[in-house]
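Notes from the 1:1 (GR / supervisor)

We went over the backlog. Supervisor wanted to see one worked example end to end before approving the batch request, so GR pasted a single chain during the call. The sequence is below; no edits were made to it. Supervisor asked that the structure be written out right there so they could see what the output format looks like.
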Amino acid sequence: MPGENLTRDEARERAALLSVDGYEVSLDLRSAIGEHTGGEPRTFRSVTTVRFRCAEPGASSFADLIAPEVTALSLNGRDLDPGQVFDGSRILLEDLAADNELVVDARCAYSRTGEGMHRFVDPEDGEVYLYTQYEPADSRRVFANFEQPDLKAPYRFEVRAPEGWTVWSNGAGELADGVWRFAETKPIPTYITCVVAGPYHYVTDSYERTFEDGTRLEIPLGAMCRRGLAPHFDADDVFLVTKQGLDFFHDHFDYPYPFGKYDQAFVPEYNLGAMENPGMVTFREEFIFRGKVTRASYEGRANVVLHEMAHMWFGDLVTMEWWDDLWLKESFADFMGAFSLVGATRFTDGWITFANRRKAWAYRADQLPSTHPITADIRDLQDAKLNFDGITYAKGASVLKQLVAYVGQDAFLEGARRYFKRHAYGNTRLGDLLSVLEETSGRDMAAWSRAWLQTAGVNSLTPQVLLREDGRIDELAVLQEAPESHPELRPHRVAVGLYRRTDAGTLERYAQAGTDVEGARTVVAELAGAEAPDLVLVNDDDLTYCKTRFDETSLAALRRDLGHMTDPLARALCWSALWNMTRDALLPAREFIGLVVKFAGQETDIGVLQMLHAWAESAAVHYTAAERRTEAVRELCRIASVRMYHPDAGGEHQLAWARFFAHMADVPADFELLASLLDGTVTLPGLEVDQELRWAFLEPLAAHGVADEKRLDEELARDDTASGKRHHVRCLAARPSAAVKARCWAQVVESDALSNALVEATISGFAQASQRELLAPYTERYFAAIERVWTERSIQIGMDVVRGLFPSFQDSQATLDATDAWLTSHEDAAPALRRLVLESRDDLARALRGQACDAAATEG
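Structure output shown during the call:
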């Protein structure tokens, strides 16, 4: 719709003209329950009063609102005709005064896409649950406003809700005369205001802190979920991490939590991991575990809790001016999530997860054709939506980790403290942060910023070892390379580790030196004269952001002894480097899979093991030559079937291997074992086949035609819950039938009847690696449909469809050619849509190069 996609230029012009004094928002959500008939969307009443000033009286501007209807409008007491000034997304405001009051009475639509005011009906008990999700610009689907981050203001919300419901917002609330009224917020941007309403299960606690000056802080804590999930809700652990995080950030930030209460809502059908609404953080409810999960899942949840908490300072207290500087909140929150996880919680190995999982996301994103500097060029809201990516989050966090090594932790944290105090409740740009870091570190932050924040791409670091006649190191150098597309050679602060095989057969570090890598070749003088290493790790301790490469001697050591490497972080870094080499077609997929088969069973870190499972599966289905793909899958399935009988019976490693076995199962004997585990005729010592694991076993049975619709319906009857419904939809879509695939395609592409969660489940089931021939007809249909889908559907659903239905399993030159033909003939398509297609094309091209590498190794 014209006007929905706000541009940066429009936002800057409006910010120069207007400043906002405050909002009063009144919502009537009683229409959320009860019957609703007709083709019109279910709506609720939204009345907004906004008071704002205009720097140029007599000028014109606009307010934002996406709503089916505006019933009344007034500006400075003057009634306006909605038909004349409201076009469905913007309200024209003419002849503004110095001080203005706008009142908008509208009918806004409930959402089924997770954007705006999302309405969910629990199939288990029929209860209705509401919550809002706005980032980057969907608060305008709930109330009229100026939807851009630099027009911050205080808000007062009041909400009428069905009897028996509880309502929460950013501020503390109370119910009087049938209306929930909430305390006025501090000045915050539109996208972090929030309303949660419904019959949620709610648990309370409190946090108390006395500071050195004697002042005392008490923060009411709350945590909530749907009633159906209440038996599984371990709120005590959520509160434990919350308190540990608040202690950590108070210790390091010297700025007390500024937003009063701290509620955390785990909500259904959530598009994101979580959202940092001050005082009312929202999370996807999958963080409430219905079955047994590994320690990595609890660590992941704790990391997200702390990430969102860091946003209370980075993003909420101090907000970026425009989405160009999204990194000012997301990169910092991602780094602080890991930093506080290690420093404050039981998950003291969090940097291993960061190195192995988060950075893998960054490395992939930074090698796509859509890669961009951490400080990105965000032209409009569609650009902003797509830039919540691995560069903004994980690369930015990695670069901040490098910055801490560069300036020192004390200088870094002191810079943060000054930043908060100097810009509290305001908006900032890149230079505002760099200036305080220059003050505290004495370093030239402009040069660092140019190299790390304002250029794209990832460097590769490779060791070069020259030996003397006596076998000791004559010279050890680090070689730095950059791709032609992004040739910047950056300064890297690294630790170079030397490892050798011990008499006990382990691979251990015996020497290490820190050095600043500059340019194409850097000599590490401190290591001259050291004994010759079996392995050189050029980014030991993971201080910098780079792709690590190995010389031939080091590769030989890893082939022999990777599983015997005693340092878990070093081992994780080596696995990550080997995976990057596989993706870059420098290491055949068959060799990576061979290393997983040989050594993954010895991996002690459960998060690394689960990452290896994901990489190995990707290596088998995407990077292995077609003629040996079946062999690769069988090889992985075989080792998984062996490792399921883990000596740690009942432990998390056994659970991870059982799930991996289900992923890789592809022959009748595998399916027979899965079916026997489901019906209980076969048991594995220690393995509890709980409801979540049952669905994990059922999906491959459905995908290979072993479990039919009747069997899946029986399982849904056993687990008739919202979670069960999603699993059921995914398994139904996985069945190997042309009629099933056609029906799924119609439900997702030709209809908007499904909610966002069921769209996601349908797409996940539809695309099966084992069904390449069955999916082949959809390549042409995909390219014929995506521009229409992008135009007609919400951006979230558009992203799900364009990414999820790309024919990635049609891995041939013909598919690459079809993609190029679409890009050539659609040069005027929305830039965000073209970006998604270009990214998928790059993944496909990379897979084909990997297959060629693997085929060449097979021939050799």
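Supervisor's comment: The first strand starts at residue 18 and ends at 28.
Batch request approved.
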